[in-house]
Design brief:
By secondary structure, the protein is α+β, with helices and mostly antiparallel strands. Helix content is about 30%, strand content about 30%.
Length: about 150
């Protein structure tokens, strides 16, 4: 009987170890879509960041977010059109196209996004900045997935 209990405990523990690794792998793959884009002339990528976990809303879902901090004289609308012209796969399904994008005018070193209610992304590049002219965060987001034992404290 103790072998059965040990097997069950081992299985449950492996879920708590393997599922977060799987979610982090999915996040890395999802974020590379944005990070590997060839950005238009006049858009300078300054920093990249990504986050997964319970990012917004209420409930128990797994969300994925990738962003780049850019400096550009292009307008927010032009940057949004650029992102909308690209095809991004969802975090967990290569066949579906992810359409959740956001372009945010950055006005501090902390990203303010509708997709980040429960997490914070801080841009190190902007930690000493006092004027936030021409800084934008380009964001792709996918969420609502079963968290599958990923119990990190987000």
């Amino acid at each position: 009987m103790s072998k059965v209990i040990a097997g069950v405990v081992g299985f449950i523990l492996s879920l708590y170890l393997i599922v977060p690794i799987y979610n982090n792998f999915q996040l890395s793959r999802f974020s590379r879509q944005l990070w590997n884009l060839e950005f238009p002339q006049g858009v300078i990528v300054l920093e990249e960041d990504k986050e997964n976990g319970k990012l917004n809303g209420n409930g128990n879902s797994m969300d994925y977010l990738a962003c780049v901090l850019v400096k550009s004289e292009k307008t927010q609308d032009e940057l949004e059109e650029f992102l909308e012209s690209k095809k991004f796969h969802c975090a967990r399904d290569d066949e579906e196209e992810c359409r959740d994008i956001e372009v945010v005018k950055v006005e501090s070193d902390i990203l303010q996004s509708k997709y980040l209610e429960h997490e914070t992304i801080t841009f190190e590049f902007l930690s000493d900045e006092t004027e936030f002219q021409d800084y934008y965060a380009l964001i792709i987001y996918d969420g609502g997935y079963d968290s599958s034992f990923d119990i990190r404290g987000h």
